[in-house]
Amino acid sequence: MTSGEQKKSKKAPTGLRAPRGMVDVLPHQWRLWRWLEEVAREIFELAGYHEIRSPLFEDTGLFVRGIGDTSDIVEKEMYTFADGENSSITLRPENTAGVMRAYVEYEMYKTQKFQKFYYIGPQFRKERPQAGRLRQFHQMGIEAVGSMDPLVDVETIGVATQVYDRLALVDYELKLNIIGCEQCRPPYRKVLKEELARHKKSLCELCLARMERNVFRVLDCKEKGCREIAHKMPVIYNYMCRACKDHFDVVKAALTDINVKYDLDPFLVRGLDYYTKTVYEVVLPSLGARSAICAGGRYDNLIADVGGPPTGAVGFAIGMESSMLALEKTYQDKVPMDEGEPRLQVYLISIGEETHKECFKIAQKLRSQGLSCDLDYEGRSLKAQMRSANKRGARRVIMIGPDELAQGQVKLKDMETGKEKLLAEDQIVVYSQVDAESWD
Questions:
Q1: Is the domain covering 27-184+240-331 a CATH 3.30.930.10 domain?
Q2: Class at the top of the CATH hierarchy for domain 346-438
Q3: Is the pLDDT of residue 311 over 80?
Q4: Which of 37, 212, 344, 411 could pair with 399 in a Cys bridge, judged by C-beta atoms 3.0 to 4.6 Å apart?
Q5: DSSP letter assigned to residue 427
Q6: Interval 129-143 mean pLDDT
């Protein structure tokens, strides 16, 4: 059960609840989330990307200019609020525009034109909640800014697939396409509108509007009838300019060189207006209609659109909720113990109030030496405390009873071998870390 699908208890109180489309990530669910984040951070940083954190809300104009006023996000999905008489702010529906705003605002291009960023955090869209898709959702992604080199496109794709490979996610597929540039899109747009005009009576109302505002979005419609029509349309490959063709040829060849398999999808256009040239998605077909778990591409015009100099850029965003669904299908709550959550090194067990106080003092000492430890705060029995130690996966247990307390000693037990040793307090830190075979 993912954080996007917690089931409310039938006996739960009927008071305040999380707003529709917003869910809590509860402590027992963090193990998988943490593993996903830690794997991504490691791979992002190995490829030279540095973390950036942008505000949760921005000036509304950033998204109108950056994402495009013909996108579904800007038209009907943004959470926008008045911020004074003549201005408004919007909770970020995606993170790329904010990162590009920061790149321009701080004139990063003047110190080093080509820079690499990554981010992890919540985004907000006012849409119908469903499995893996929430009104507050989480994304982690990378942005490589300052280069037109097609090999940078390939690097970002490689980083995305490395994340899923490291997580041992099976059966994902990479969908790849090119959507052209300012030179080759106009003639393709003209042909597409002419061909779609013959099917107007069969298109949904939204696609009829898209034909006039952004005809390429018709290719992205999820309605069955519109999809059938879209798949009969001419594809952009026959209209590409020489620069786009050369760019795409390099991308495809380099993916083959690094053994990344891909499927060409001429109807993949992405939902944001700022994309140019390369676009891609990582999908897991077993998730059904909402199978995309990662999406990205090149956006060479975005920085200029938000007030900066013309600058090439490419990146992706991983949907964390959808990736969690994919991981749960793969692991079914059987993530290895050493993944996602540090194993507890020591659990302290006490018998009686005075020994409880001594366990508390020892716990503070162990933590100050970098050892993870915990103890019981409920006054439970010895048997119940041992169950907690096992449940927490503790490597060692320290037991203090009245006799040990009187002698100034503790009993240390290795949970794997069952080996036990009486120790003086000043020996605890050392013996808690060394191999149990060396206790003799």
A1: yes
A2: alpha beta
A3: yes
A4: 411
A5: G
A6: 88
